[in-house]
Amino acid sequence: MKALPPELEEALENSAADCDAAAEVLRIAAKYLRTGEAMPFGLSLFLADAIDRAMEKAPSARGSELLLNLKLKANNKRRSSANFEHVGRDMDRLIASKMRRDDAIHKLTQEYGISEKTVERRIKEYIEFSAFELQQDELLHERVVQVKPQTARKKTPQKKG
C-alpha cells in the first residue's frame, strides 16, 4: 500500500473546509490517472466513497451529490478550518493574561476569521476534549498503580546449625 504524499495528505485533511484543497486532491488524482501509476490507498478510497455515495442517490441528485462528496461544493456552509485545540489553547492563553472573556473571543474571531458562535463552539469542543483527556489520564494512572509490582522483600540469611 502506497503512503500518502505530504501534499496529498494536507489537501485531503483541509478539503472539508477549503474548496481549493478539494480541487488540489482531484488534480493529484488526475496525475495518477494520466500516468497509470497506482494511487495511494487513501486517495482511491476518497474517490470511491464519493462516487458510491453519490450513485446511491436519485438520478437527478447524483451530480450535485458527487460535488458535495468530493468537497467541491458545500451543503450549507463549509466547516470552519479553525482547529478547536488551537482556538481553545489561545483562549486559555488570553484568559491567563487577564483579558476579559468577551475581549478574548473578539480577538479570536479576528485571528481565525470566524464568527463568535464558531469561537464559542470550538471552545466548548476544546473543554469537552480536555475533560475526556483528563478522564483517560486518570484511568491510565489507576491501571498503572494497580499493576505496579509489589516491592520485593529482602530475605534474611538463615543461620545454619
Summarize model confidence as the mean pLDDT. Answer: 83
Strand content: under 5%
Helix content: 55-70%
Amino-to-carboxy terminus distance: 71 Å
Give me the Rg, rounded: 26 Å
**Distinct helical segment count:** 7
Shape descriptor reads: flat
> How many structural domains are formed by the residues?
2
Q: Give the biggest beta sheet.
A: none
Instruction: State the total count of DSSP E strands.
Output: 0
Return residue spans where pLDDT drops below 50 for at least 5 consecutive residues: none
Q: How is this fold's topology laid out?
A:
Layout: H1 6-14, H2 19-35, H3 41-55, H4 62-69, H5 84-96, H6 101-112, H7 116-147
Give a verbal description of the structure:
With 161 residues, this protein is an all-alpha fold. It has seven helices and no strands. The chain has helices spanning 6-14, 19-35, 41-55, 62-69, 84-96, 101-112, 116-147. It is flat and about 85 Å long. The N and C termini lie far apart (71 Å). The mean pLDDT is 83.
